[in-house]
Design a protein that fits this description.
12% strand; five-stranded antiparallel beta sheet; alpha+beta
Length: 274
């Protein structure tokens, strides 16, 4: 085990809220989150690792296990959003934006740098309900994910590229994952080394690279670039619900399109994802 202890860099931050995007459902085998603890098992460029972050009002402690422990510990500050300076809400912002900013002052946008990990559950979430996607992700990790390093044998790593590529698309049907999503998972596995390199690029450049992969569209890219690379402007275009929500809250319109959503969010460019 490797461990590090460090002072919280931003006492105003709400770390639990900031880390919430990394957990895909309450029973995510790779990620656990409470009001004071975050545990994540993942695959790093240096090998598998499990990170445990514990925080109190005055201090944040991080411990990690596995070959990628050092890599994970080096990124603790960025995953808790320490480099995010927050959002200066304009005086003339919509009242709903000002209210959300006032009610959630501790929200930060973190960056995991584990783009491969973030892509897998989001791909599973394509074209299915949230409950279906959460169940399928859990079952896939339980079937193909190795036991994570560290003291908790119930934690699972996300499926490795080799594990995903070892099975044809039809094999994933047992989880309810049809061929199109299965092939997208296998594509991500096939290009996993490149994807790790893209994690070091700017959000715009990483998004451009991801667009080259079959089965990876604007919704998937908009959903992963924010939490993976710390981009507060990333928007999931093509979502079934978000355009309606934005149109209703910002314009009182019960139904909205992606075009209308982006039009309403335009005054907040640079922070649209937040």
């Amino acid at each position: 085990m490797t461990s590090v202890s460090q002072e919280r860099l931003d006492h105003a931050a709400n770390i639990a809220v900031t880390l919430a995007p990394y957990r895909f459902g309450r029973r995510d085998p790779t990620t656990r989150l409470s009001s004071s603890d975050f545990i994540r098992a993942t695959i790093t460029p240096n090998g598998p690792a499990t990170l445990h972050i514990h925080w109190s009002p005055d201090q944040l402690d991080a411990h990690a296990w596995g070959d990628g422990a050092g890599w994970m510990l080096h990124r603790v500050a960025q995953i808790v959003g320490a480099s995010d300076l927050g959002f200066d809400c304009p005086i003339d912002a919509h009242p709903a934006v000002r209210r959300a900013h006032r009610n959630h002052p501790g929200l930060r946008v973190g960056a995991s740098s584990t783009l491969y990990h973030e892509l897998l559950p989001v791909i599973i979430g394509q074209r299915v309900t949230a409950n279906e996607a959460i169940r399928q992700w859990r079952q896939l990790c339980e079937a193909l994910g190795d036991i994570a390093p560290g003291p908790d044998a119930t934690m699972r790593l996300p499926p490795t590229p080799a594990r995903l590529l070892a099975h044809p698309a039809w094999w994933f049907h047992r989880f309810g994952i049809e061929a199109k999503r299965a092939e997208a998972l296998r594509t991500v596995a096939r290009y996993a080394e490149r994807i790790a390199e893209w994690s070091l690029l700017s959000p715009a450049d990483a998004a451009a690279k991801l667009r080259l992969l079959p089965g990876i569209g604007v919704w998937t890219i908009g959903s992963v670039i924010g939490p993976a690379l710390g981009d507060p402007d990333s928007v999931a275009v093509g979502d079934y619900h978000i355009p309606n929500t934005v149109s209703w809250v910002l314009a009182g319109e019960p139904r909205g399109t992606d075009t209308r959503m982006l039009e309403l969010l335009a005054p907040y460019e640079g922070q649209r994802g937040r």
